[in-house]
Amino acid sequence: MSLPPLVEPAGELTAQEIARYRRHLILPDLGTTGQKRLKNARVLVIGAGGLGSPVLLYLAAAGVGTLGIVDFDVVEESNLQRQIIHGISDIGRSKAASARDSIAELNPLVAVVLHETRLTPGNAVDVFGRYDLIVDGTDNFATRYLVNDAAVLAGKPYVWGSVHRFEGQVSVFWEDAPDGRGLNYRDLYPEPPAPGLVPSCAEGGVLGVLCAAIGSVMATEAVKLIAGIGEPLLGRLLIYDALALSHQTIDIRKDPAAPPITGLVDYEAFCGTADPGPDPGVTPSELRDLLAAGAPITLIDVREPAEWEIGHLEGAVLVPASAIDSGLAGLPPGRTPVLYCRTGVRSASVLAAVRAAGFPDATHLQGGIVAWARQFDSGLAIY
Fold first, then answer.
1. Yes or no: is domain 15-270 CATH 3.40.50.720?
2. Where are the domains of the chain?
3. Which position among 45, 51, 201, 297 bears the catalytic label?
4. Which member of 81, 180, 194, 239 has the lowest number of beta carbons within 10 Å of its beta carbon?
């Protein structure tokens, strides 16, 4: 079932716009009126990364009049495997500024507004209120719940997408959708997963071209909502498997027992990522001192085998977090396990299991192998 158009049409198209968008203008369901709606639309894209890159490029090419970009990060070389809006010359630059320049090269008729700041409970509702539609391309649960709750409070629809390894998901959420069709992200995922259970792209990896597939679907949903054409994914979740080249959609239903969203909260605390707690582990400096003193410790790498092959700490043993229960049997007694992963998230999440298995003094490395490499071993391959 289609939804009413989000945006009123702009005035007449110029001769330049007619020439540029003529393949749109001859589409029966879109046509001149739909293109005018795109011209008049204001869309906020959160994240100029793997998903934000194709979304921004395709919405700019489609003629969306104003694109807002929320991103405070800078371009790194590892981004270029999937974040196609950036190039080699952009390394070290602001992602938002890099994306703006790529958009200007593609379509100078599009106005770009940069929000080079972290999205927070203090600014999200105000920023959302300036746009007709939100597109969420973030890759962490704290920001996803913030986006959802702020969109509910601002009364805005949003397109959501996620990618992980070889799979992606897309849906549309709009609490105030007409005809009683309203729902939000919490109707799909009422609670966040335990910290470390679902690794980020940096931790778990992602097929670069998958971002293009999912991002193009997200951009399509945005165009449909703006123009009021087709059947958007409101109330449905699209699941795409790149390896099987298959997709399915499942229905999402409103949870009548869910408490209403009346304000914003501390989302880092809500997702369990705010504070490492009373046992943050050992710092890279402390670990170096322990190794230099010949302390009876066993370094345990809890990453996956593919990550181990990229690089690991000398003398470590590989016991993936996914097999931690069975992998501890061969550890030598009388030595303290020191767990590490890429950034410290996964090692912290399995620390309790290691202690319960008979190693009460086990600890883990703060910041993981990335922190170690940055402080003491610049030649160690990190990713």
1. yes
2. 15-270, 284-376
3. 201
4. 180
Catalytic residue (choose from 183, 341, 345, 350) = 341
Phi, psi of 203 (to 5 degrees): -85, -40
Q: Place 278 in a pLDDT band, splitting at 50, 70 and 90.
A: low
341 is catalytic: yes
- CA pair distance 298, 318, nearest whole angstrom: 11
End-to-end Cα, the chain, rounded Å: 44
Residue 96, token pair as written in the block: 């938002």
Q: Do the first three CATH levels of 15-270 and 284-376 match, i.e. the same topology?
A: no
What's the mean pLDDT in 221-248?
A: 97
What's the token pair of residue 362? 């086990």
Query: How remote is the C-alpha of 374 from its chain's centroid?
Result: 24
- If you search the block for the tokens 């490395």, which residue do you land on? 365
pLDDT in tens, 95-112: 999 999 999 999 999 999
Using 50, 70 and 90 to split pLDDT, how confident is the model at 210?
very high
pLDDT at 326: 82
Structure tokens at 215: 């991002």
Cα 250 from Cα 108, distance rounded (Å): 39
**What ranges in 228-343 are assigned the alpha helix state H?**
267-270, 284-292, 305-310, 324-327
CATH architecture of 284-376: 3-Layer(aba) Sandwich (3.40)
Q: Residue 229: what residue type?
A: I
In the chain, the amino acid numbered 128 is F
